[in-house]
């Protein structure tokens, strides 16, 4: 056990990214669940840990708290060089980060629980309208990303070559999340293939929502 | 002139980030404007450069195209070490990236032109409802970020110490963007102070929308 404490929620896709990263690095951690639908991430106790009130957050041995899943993953990759999550050259790293950010900056934030809640409470969106919204933003990014992956010889079993990395963490978590809104994945053959290849890796399978202690 | 070609739009906040980064590094570039409100980023010519149809994109000397502003900035920081945009230790880098991503992943994507357009076309949001939405997501992140900045001794003239970096690029661009929606910045003294310190640096002032050739 490394002394790491992971504050997270079984279904949160940013939590899935980070759990899979920790698993790939072979880092054990204490699992602390914060139930997002019950608002537990807005408790005073959790806001003292992460003033943003978001999961995941990672507490280090000395009590230092790291926030923002992608920042934590870059940190882990710098401090624990085993199973690198970024490739060796600046150009290749730029490719992998761009793929990761396409999901992390274009899909995930817009489809967050709190954004969907705002659509319902303020604009009167029903479940159908919310699902249409969710699928729209997935398609807006997955359609070009499918082309970018399929058309680049650097794509292998995973987004970049034959070992999983930062982009795969984001892709995997997004595809898991998509299932809650019946996203039609049939146009995205390469993305589906990479997802399946991830799922065959225990580090990813063990990061799935249903494998967590707070799963419902 | 470095042979770099910047595809961007004067008012886009991700373009502002990247222009300021290029300026801080002292890298000249050819400025190519794509008018977002006229949909020029969806032209076949631009989609051949960036299949995502988003700005900014940076073309290198050899025609390689980099996308996603934060990925491009990390690339520039790796290849051009002058004026480093990230600090020297993994823990400090994690802090700076987390501040940058809080803006890049929690505020900017939700307040993007295309998202605001969807609110209008599908949910019938008027200009007032769009402005309320915009300010809501700024406040959701700026409120905790103000605490995180004000309460950390590593905050200096800028987000991290006395030299501008990755987090300042995002903060600066967001504050510029906020002006279009009359965000009340009075609760955010530290963020305002950092913004003013950025504005006093020519690399940032020269990245402002009104200083660009396509400004209206």
Automatic annotation (TrEMBL), chains A, B:
GST C-terminal domain sequence ranges: 89-216
Any one Gene Ontology cellular component term annotated for this protein: cytoplasm
Family listed: Belongs to the GST superfamily. Zeta family.
GO biological process: glutathione metabolic process; L-phenylalanine catabolic process
Coiled coil: none
InterPro entries registered for this protein in UniProt: Glutathione-S-Trfase_C-like, Glutathione-S-Trfase_C_sf, Glutathione_S-Trfase, Glutathione_S-Trfase_N, GST_Zeta, GST_Zeta_C, GST_Zeta_N, Thioredoxin-like_sf
Keywords attached to this entry: Isomerase, Pyruvate
Pfam families: GST_N_2
Any one Gene Ontology molecular-function term assigned to this protein's record: maleylacetoacetate isomerase activity
Species of provenance: Neomesorhizobium albiziae
Domain GST N-terminal per the UniProt entry, residue ranges: 2-84
Name of the protein described by the UniProt record: Maleylpyruvate isomerase
Superkingdom classification of source: Bacteria
């Amino acid at each position: 056990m490394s002394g790491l404490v992971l504050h997270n929620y079984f279904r949160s896709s940013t939590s899935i990214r980070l759990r899979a990263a920790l698993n790939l690095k072979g880092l054990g951690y204490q699992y602390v669940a914060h139930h997002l639908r019950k608002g537990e991430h807005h408790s005073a106790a959790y806001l003292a840990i992460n003033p943003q009130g978001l999961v995941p957050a990672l507490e280090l041995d000395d009590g230092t708290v790291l926030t923002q899943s992608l920042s934590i993953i870059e940190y882990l990759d710098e401090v624990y060089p085993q199973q690198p999550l970024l490739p060796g050259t600046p150009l290749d790293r730029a490719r992998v980060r761009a793929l990761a950010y396409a999901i992390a900056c274009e899909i995930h934030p817009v489809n967050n629980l709190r954004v969907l809640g705002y659509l319902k409470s303020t604009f009167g969106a029903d479940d159908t309208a919310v699902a249409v919204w969710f699928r729209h933003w997935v398609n807006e990014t997955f359609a070009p990303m499918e082309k970018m992956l399929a058309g680049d010889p650097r794509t292998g079993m995973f987004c970049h070559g034959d070992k999983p990395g930062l982009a795969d963490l984001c892709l995997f978590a997004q595809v898991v999340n998509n299932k809650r809104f019946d996203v039609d994945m049939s146009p995205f053959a390469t993305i589906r293939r990479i997802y399946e290849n991830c799922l065959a890796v225990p580090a990813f399978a063990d990061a799935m929502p249903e494998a967590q202690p707070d799963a419902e």
